[in-house]
Amino acid sequence: MTIVTFGLAAAHETTVENPTPTSEVPMSTAFPLLSPFSFRCHCRDEDIPAILAVHEACRERDATDPDSVCYSVPNLTPTGYARLLQDTPPEGILIAEEAGKVVAHAWMEVWGVEERMYLWQVWVVPRWRGHGLGTAMNRWGETKAREMYGDDARVGLHLANATDGERDAVTLLLSEGHHLSFVSPELAFDAFESLATVPTVRGIALRALKSSEHRAVARALSEANLNPPDHEDRWIGAALESRIDTEEAEWLGRIQSADPELSPVAWEGGEIAGAYLCRRSGRVGEIAQVAVRAPWRGRGVARALAMQSLHGLRAAGCVSARLFTSIGPEEEEPVRGPYVMYRKFGFSPIARHLRYRKAMRLEPPVGKVSVT
Ligand SMILES: CC(C)(COP(=O)(O)OP(=O)(O)OC[C@H]1O[C@@H](n2cnc3c(N)ncnc32)[C@H](O)[C@@H]1OP(=O)(O)O)[C@@H](O)C(=O)NCCC(=O)NCCS
Predict the structure, then answer these.
(1) Does residue 288 contact residue 258 with C-beta atoms inside 8 Å?
(2) What is the CATH number of the domain that holds 279?
(3) Is residue 325 lining ligand 1, measured as CB closer than 6 Å?
(4) What is the pLDDT of residue 283?
(5) For residue 218, what are the domain limits?
(6) pLDDT tens per residue, range 16-74
(7) Is residue 278 part of a domain?
(8) Do 232 and 158 have their domain in common?
(9) Number of domains comprising the chain
(10) What is the DSSP letter of 270?
(11) Which of 69, 184, 198, 292 maximizes ligand 1 atoms within 8 Å of its Cβ, making it the mutation to test the pocket?
């Protein structure tokens, strides 16, 4: 097991990079000797209940929605969390303990082809907020991300998420130099009693997804998402085909996690016009992917697929349907894009999920982080 410690002197040095106080408690007293925190990188399966307990302890203060289809980590089951860890890089978990009890943890996800993105999420139980713990763990993650990034020639970015309920996290991220990159509003549809009938679109037939169609649907969804409306750079010809090939496995994974009975596909003759991928968890349904290919847009195919999906979810016993989309960093007036479309379908906003980012700087952000 790797034990990670933050030296007190090192913590004091952190004010050099960012002169703005990052916490009500000065960093020099961030780790009072009377209540030392100890840190270690994951992973043991026995830690999972304690990690999930941190999320439960944060739930009320952070207004964490147990049914969110966007902010899933705090709502994972032990099995779901174990699966998440399988995809986590070594040392992509940091656990903080106080008197042998887990009081905070952090998790990293890394991705990106043209840019390298390091998402680092920190959760501190409310009882231990305001002691500099979140700031120190945030900086440790940034240091770790820089080590992983090495001398990569691509652009490196630190990313972090927060919902609008997580006011403490938002304050910390802004004070650490992050800026808002985009907002993912989560929307819900609850009006199942007054659900409109599925409109007919001339020439279009809606059918439930079949396993023999997975590959064709994956490629259609990939194509539709590569060429959204009003996008300046269009993927065409061989470049489009090659990109669809690259994305196929990822889209197949998304299709496999959908419920085929609840996922309608729109056909015109032998061609796929569009598809929605849906699933449900208990009485909450999720519309996870929505796409109509460019030649079929503007004919009401997305609306027909939405109504078909909602009828399916209602028949399956759902009382609410959820989805999320993205809008710019500032809420544009008026907001454009799929958000407007979902509002027309009767979905209402229930939360804003915020993505923060900051450029990776090559010098270490924290004086020293000693790993023994
Ligand atoms: C978004 C998308 C699914 C719309 O499909 P579509 O079949 O053209 O949509 P519809 O014709 O059924 O439009 C339904 C309504 O939504 C509106 N609408 C559709 N796309 C819109 C957009 N991008 N911005 C604003 N309004 C939109 C339409 O004007 C229409 O309104 P009306 O009923 O008042 O006339 C399609 O453009 C697409 O696949 N885009 C790429 C993938 C994507 O962005 N998916 C959503 C991710 S959150």
Answers:
(1) yes
(2) 3.40.630.30
(3) yes
(4) 96
(5) 191-318
(6) 232 222 332 233 334 443 457 888 886 778 899 999 999 999 999 999 999 999 999 99
(7) yes
(8) no
(9) 2
(10) T
(11) 292
